[in-house]
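[audit] Reproducing an earlier prediction to check determinism. Same input, same settings, fresh worker. If the tokens differ from the archived copy the diff job will pick it up downstream; this log only records the rerun itself.
[audit] input (201 residues):
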Amino acid sequence: MLIGYARTSTLEQIASLATQRESLKAIGCERVYEEQISSVAVREALSDAMSFCREGDTLVVTKLDRLARSVKHLGDIIEELEAKKVGLKILNMSLDTSHATGKLMLNVLASVAQFERELMLERQREGIAKAKAEGKYRGRPSKLAKHQHKVQALLEAGQTKQQIAAALQISERSVYRICSRILDARRTDTAKQNLSPQVDI
């Protein structure tokens, strides 16, 4: 029996999910499990599909990235399917792990994909290091920095620190730290103004 599994990462990809479903049905999948969820989240439909599989069945996906999030995850899936004597088919690669060649090809391709990801991360780290050396890298804004303008606006509107914390869904401690930053910035600006040369007109 062929059991299909389809996944998209966001709710906006409804068309993609429908396309996967049609492809799986077209090759004869009698049951199709589907979900719209991130690859790193707990995927209940995938667990249900694998639990439903029995000896001699084949789990079918349209693409490898619809199934596994990493080489290790793929290995875990294959190991679990093999223990149940269930095959795995990936349509866009024409791979079928019920054959030794298909299993070998799948492992090689997954390893290459992981290698490419590691290279990408290495290039990213090198780019960040270069930007830092040139003084161009700022990184992501901190949580406090992101809320500073909002806190300042609410303070000027007469809101208390407790009310601001509730409105922004942050701790009161964070609000106090942001207020301290605002005061420090004001003192710095005042000091700069006092140090500025006076020009008589």
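[audit] rerun output stored. Observation attached for the diff report: The helical segments are 14-26, 44-52, 71-83, 100-133, 143-156, 161-168, 172-195.
[audit] end
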